[in-house]
Write a structure and sequence with these properties.
- By secondary structure, the protein is α+β, with helices and mostly antiparallel strands.
- It has six helices and seven strands; from the N terminus they run E-H-H-H-H-H-E-E-E-E-E-H-E.
- The chain has a seven-stranded antiparallel sheet with strand order 1-6-5-4-3-7-2, sandwiched between helices.
- The protein is globular, with a radius of gyration of 16 Å.
Length: 210
């Protein structure tokens, strides 16, 4: 079965132009900023001919954009353009920070840049449940065995909800239970591919605007 099989096509943007933007990879030197050395660490190398994966940066950058109400971060017909022209650049720089979203937010603060988000809680669980989802707008960064994705909702368990999968794009849902089901199926697939037991928890950092 395809990943995220129950996503609503009207709310989703599965990447169609990876040949243009490279998908889950740092931009090319030709597309990058002059006099910046980030691609020396994150760009094309002998071991990474397509550039390094930037999933950490994409997951964190998406959570920040989503919680700040950036419409392109959750609008199906503009998301890929938003990723192509903005998000992948920020994601590459954030990936260069290392670690996970908590350290990314701390690094932004150290640089004098406010993200306007606040951690609600961090947990290690097999999958999210209703009790983990706060009221209001929320977003979660998910670390799942050498890959990082994100999810979030516009209003607790009653609004639309989304999954940001850096290799796939944006997946949207009108029912949070359907989103949690697809998320659980994806995490099970990751466990299996990494030879992890079915009870192995993933890491979740849940944020709210703040």
């Amino acid at each position: 079965m395809a990943h995220f099989a129950n996503a609503d096509p009207q709310l989703s943007c599965r990447y169609k132009n990876k040949a243009t933007h490279g998908g889950n990879h740092a931009p090319s030197v030709a597309d990058w900023f002059k006099n910046d050395d980030t691609l020396d660490r994150q760009g094309v190398s002998q071991g990474k001919p397509n550039g390094h994966g930037i999933c950490k940066g994409t997951a964190s950058s998406w959570v920040i954009a989503f919680l700040n109400g950036v419409r392109d971060s959750y609008t199906a017909n503009t998301y890929e353009e938003f990723y192509t022209n903005f998000l992948r650049y920020q994601a590459t720089m954030v990936k260069d920070f290392g670690k996970h979203i908590d350290s990314h937010v701390a690094q932004f603060k150290k640089l004098g840049v406010e993200t306007n988000i606040k951690e609600y809680k961090s947990i290690k669980v097999v999958n999210l449940t209703k009790s983990d989802i706060p009221d209001g707008r929320w977003g979660a960064y998910i670390s799942c065995w050498h890959h990082d994705i994100a999810c979030g909702g516009t209003w607790g368990t009653t609004g639309n909800s989304y999954i940001c999968q850096p290799n796939t794009g944006l997946l949207g849902y009108t029912n949070y239970l359907t989103m949690l089901s697809d998320l659980g199926t994806y995490l099970d697939s990751r466990r299996s591919s990494k030879s992890k037991p079915a009870t192995e928890p993933a890491g979740f950092w849940i944020y709210r605007p703040g």
